[in-house]
Design a protein that fits this description.
The structure is a homodimer. The first copy, chain A, is an alpha/beta fold. Chain A folds into 2 domains: about 200 residues, HAD superfamily/HAD-like (Rossmann fold); about 70 residues, no CATH class. The first copy, chain A, is about 35% helix and about 20% strand. The first copy, chain A, is built from 12 helices and 10 strands. In chain A, strands 3, 4, 5, 6, 7, 8, 9 and 10 form an 8-stranded mixed sheet that branches. Chain A has a two-stranded antiparallel ribbon with strand order 1-2. In chain A, a hairpin with a 2-residue loop joins strand 5 and strand 6. Chain A is globular and about 65 Å long. The interface between A and B is large, with 45 and 45 residues.
Chain lengths: ~325, ~325
């Protein structure tokens, strides 16, 4: 993942092969500006044995938001597009949706009208399309979608609408024995089928929003059935709760891009010792999108103020990243 | 942890030190009976590259019950003793407990009467003693108790009332690149402060029962406050739900000792490919305790029937373990 082996030698003795490699630039898609230097300085300090800021390996917990932080989130959260596609696919079994909002607007292709009801409308559509099947069936549906659907603007698969600098950051932290987690407002079971392949983050390190489920035996076969009832929203105040519930240890590094990540950063910063909080600021209308305080998606307002006030690292996408998406050369 | 290095050599060349070691018996506290052979055969098969039963490393998920499986659970769940101790410590702040059951019985030292109300009474006492403080405060309380309290029969710290054969099994699985998880009906935050030290299982790999929590800023300091409301019971049908929620991947190996673990085993067995389910049967009244179908703690009835019917591995503690507790020679 962008690592260059500058120097390697092979020692063949007693049948043992040893390859030593020295990484050159662990973050090649990051410009040589302040954020890159701050990240490398932080990692250097917490991994320096006998240094004053050393953090033992088990406590090197890093949490990452997903939408707008690891992959893009415009023109609308990608999971919303998945929900719209599910509504279209399920419409023949739901003739009543033709008359019923917000479903009727989705079926007419009027996304703006469908989202007029805000999060409540989105949640209603999620319940209607993400429940009523087993966990295995949903896993297959989500996986089939993510491997075939294309982004409306770029025409690229969503798993390529991923930020190359963040992939490098994840790998760099893992190379330094950090355990990397996703902590996202997105659906936990929507993310899990592909996060290991795309981000190198296994399902057990994904924290997200969820609906209720129940266990039952169907003709002797054990299944977990998804129920259209909200279980947990992993956003804002929910993020520290999700972190404590799933990880049980406070992160020393957190990354986000919106007000929804503010409480996660506060929780990270509230611990003792050196801490690092990073905000991705979407400032690049040419290569990606430019939005912050007034955006309907990923609003970045209170978080931006607090980050500036407290000196957290804010990535200016336009200036701090020399490459944005993985599909760029 | 019982591993013997039979053969080691040191190769010093170009400044590189390589130590190769060959483990002899990974399970020395296990007698050479069927269960030990079955475990070693299973691990051999799923780790045999190019073999028909090979399982890739990320899918090597093993889940362990705690009470009665990793540590003892008699004369009563150890967390219940913690709850009783907390009631005694908090009694001065709760004069009403002198007249109110089940608290009054606890304060009189009548455990049997206190537990007459079954799980409901225990839950009520857990709520009253495990809530109303921050997650950090509770962590300290649980940690202080576990490092000082002693078992009423053996006089040993509870963290030594741990089964040596199961410690060896955990280590053996991890040596073979399994990720080991606890999936227990016990309180998740009661276990997390000590599971890494005692079992080598970090907080993020502990799944358990929980109460609700909320995030807030207190004088600018972020805290997670524990609320006396039930969030999740990780027992029976709850275990597969807890596994799916936290791990998101079906175990290929599960271990338990009671009917509370039956659904976890069913879930494990319901996946494709080779699977291993293990039940610890408490058959040793001399070295530990002997109980199963009629026990008030850790009832093992339906689970025993299904294990025998389906050919799951049932450990006869008396015959299959040559050492039980870690404190034994």
């Amino acid at each position: 993942m962008g690592f260059i082996i500058r120097n390697s030698f092979v020692a063949l003795t007693f049948g043992i092969t040893t390859i030593c490699s020295f990484a050159e630039d662990p973050l090649p898609s990051w410009s040589d500006t302040a954020p890159k230097k701050a990240i490398i300085e932080f990692v250097g300090k917490v991994t320096k044995k006998d240094g004053p800021d050393f953090v033992p390996v088990p406590e090197r917990i890093a949490t990452f938001d997903n939408d707008g932080c690891l992959w893009a989130e415009q023109p609308v959260y990608f999971q919303a597009i998945f929900i719209f596609d599910r509504i279209k696919a399920l419409a023949p079994q739901h003739p009543e949706w033709k008359e019923k909002e917000p479903f009727a607007s989705v079926l007419k292709g009027d996304v703006k009208a469908a989202l007029k009801g805000g999060e409540k409308a989105l949640l209603e559509m999620a319940m209607a399309t993400h429940a009523g099947m087993t966990s295995e069936e949903f896993d297959k549906i989500a996986n089939d979608w993510i491997t075939t659907a294309k982004h409306p603007k770029t025409g690229k698969p969503y798993t390529e609408m991923v930020y190359q600098p963040m992939l490098e950051l994840l790998a760099y932290l893992r190379t330094n024995d950090f355990k990397t987690f996703i902590v996202s407002g997105g659906g936990i079971e929507f993310m899990r089928p592909w996060t290991e392949r795309v981000y190198g983050i296994p399902p057990e390190q994904v924290v997200g929003s969820s609906i209720k489920t129940k266990f039952e035996l169907r003709d002797g076969k054990p299944v977990i059935v998804r129920i259209p009832e909200l279980n947990f929203i992993d956003d804002k105040e929910g993020k520290p709760i999700g972190i404590q519930s799933h990880i049980g240890r406070r992160p020393i590094f957190s990354a986000g891009n919106s007000d929804g990540d503010l409480q996660m950063h506060q929780w990270t910063q509230g611990g003792e010792g050196l801490r690092f909080s990073l905000y991705v600021h979407h400032t690049d209308a040419d290569r990606e999108w430019a939005y912050d305080r007034d955006s309907h998606i990923g609003r970045f307002d209170k978080g931006l103020d607090e980050a500036r006030e407290k000196g957290w690292t804010v990535i200016d996408m336009k200036n701090d990243w020399n490459r944005v998406f993985t599909f760029e050369k």
